[in-house]
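Justification of resources, computational component.

The compute hours requested in this renewal are based largely on the per-chain cost of generating structure records like the one below. Each record pairs the submitted sequence with a full structure-token output. That output is archived, and it is also reused by downstream analysis tasks.
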Amino acid sequence: MRALSYLDLSDNYLFGNFPDDFQNMSSLSHLDLSENDVGSTSPNATFAKMQALSYLNLANNGLTGRISIGFQNMSSLSHLDLSGNFLDGLIPNATIGKMQALEYLSLAGNHFLSGTIPDSLGLLLQLTWLDFSSNNLTGDIPPLLGDLSHLQYIDLSNNRLSGSIQSQVANFQNLSSLSQLDLSNNKLEGPILNAIFGKMPALSSLDLSGNSFNGSTPDGLAGLPKLTFLNLSHNQLIGIIPPLLGTLSPLHYIDLSHNHLSGPIPSQLVNFGMEAFVWNLDLCGGPLPSDCQQRGEDSHPSRRMDKGFYVGLYVSIALGFYVGFCSFFGTLALKDSWRHRYFQFLDDIINWIYVTIAIQVTKFQRNSQTVQP
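The structure output for this chain reads:
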């Protein structure tokens, strides 16, 4: 089988260790073992000798351990998919940097990969697809990603990436071919700048939800002619929704919910439904139940604060009373010994009050008699 160049065994019921015989297939360029249960560990020795491989898919195989350093010998590898496994540890910086023929790289859904995103990704100048989503990565997004001019897809969602987005993705404006960018559910912060996201002409999908972005919603997003999907929900955005967003005719999905936006919803966006705007307490009009004209009559900040304060106060009092009542009297109803002690305590308190009052009354009467001439 030394002359075999293409092998696809995906989506079967294969299990066991990764076969050592694969290292003898010197002509093998395409290997797909995805959707099986092959290999409990990542076989370094075997991969080190498969230098003709250009396509390797081991997704959803239950692989454990560290990412194989044997990959660095695969100088022809253009497609590597290790997603949906149980790989752990750091993403090896040196190994990634030596696979400079890579066009597709997915480590998504391993959950246990940790550490930072390696700077050596900046050496993969042919890369078009990058998916590191659903891991445990921390730190910054390497600015060198902005130098990968062929990138069309970036998904770094569901990690623990942090820091200001301004410095980390400043070079993303150079990614003229980028069509999908997903940074959702991280710990990124800072304003969403027009200078960054307003200069990606090919961008069709942008998901920045579940972070701590603040400032206003950038109206520069209206300058993205191919944008069909926009999710900015679960952030800390303030101000009005730019009316220019309503001019995006290709837009099929928008979610601005769970922010601090205010003012009327642009008329061009009302067809997206209430779920796209909920939990912005100062938004009004469109699909929301609050009327902008009525809201204007009660728009003074102090009134809104007072109303919210008292509503919260009353709800807290009611909940506290209910929980306390149920906890206390529920316990008395269930435990006889506590109930007897409680009523004995009440009797003691009543007796003490009665005796104290009686003593004070007697003293008062004696003092009154002493004062009389």
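DSSP finds seven helices and 23 strands in the chain. Confidence is low (pLDDT under 50) at residues 299-307.
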